[in-house]
Automatic annotation (TrEMBL):
GO molecular function, one term: protein dimerization activity
Keyword line: Kinase, Transferase, Two-component regulatory system
One protein family per Pfam: HisKA_3
KW Nucleotide-binding (keyword) present: no
Signal transduction histidine kinase subgroup 3 dimerisation and phosphoacceptor domain residues: 37-102
UniProt superkingdom: Bacteria
GO CC, alphabetical: membrane
Name assigned to this protein: Histidine kinase
CDD domains xref list: HATPase_UhpB-NarQ-NarX-like
Residues forming coiled coils: none
Amino acid sequence: MVLFVGLVELALVRLWHAVLTAERALATNAALAVAEERLRFAADLHDIQGHRLQAIALKGELVAELIGRDDQAARTHAAEIAELARNALAETRALVQGYRRVSLGIELTNAVGVLRAAGIDTEIDGDDLDVPQRLQPLFGALVREGTTNVLRHSHATRCAITVAMAGPAVEVRMRNDGVRPPASDEGTGVAGLRERFGALGGQVRAGVLAGDQFELVGTVRPA
């Protein structure tokens, strides 16, 4: 009888330890999930505000130069600044509310608008609808990062964005001129993209081509 009671107590102690271990694991997983969500939020906020504010700054400098020389052009650019600011505010509000799952098509439209507002001739070749829905946010992030890099790290006059199938894989390619030497193919944004693409078996390539061309390419094979 004593042995039986002892075994029961031992089993209860082990069960209690197992419960505590499971609870700690759940708490750790919850903390990791919160941390990952915060990182995602910070990255998305950086993407939204980064290229919008860069374009606004460039437009503001242009308006200052045009005042007194071409007031009509200055007013046009000032109106575009207001539109860029409104778009940034709307997207930031959507992000804070937790509803932001922007498709690749919307990101492409945003990129064209921001780059053209900065005086960069931008064209898109391909159809974003060819990209599977589950990969849309991933490639959207690549377009956002590429747009920010064009604005920050080049004197670009042209940018070409291509959406295509590379064999069985989906590929989005951004190429611009006006690279500022020395140009680096790495940064926190590109490194983050490499991790996200790598998690799905894809890859990201970034680097300087012949002349003053820079290219950012993301490739993933749909499951």
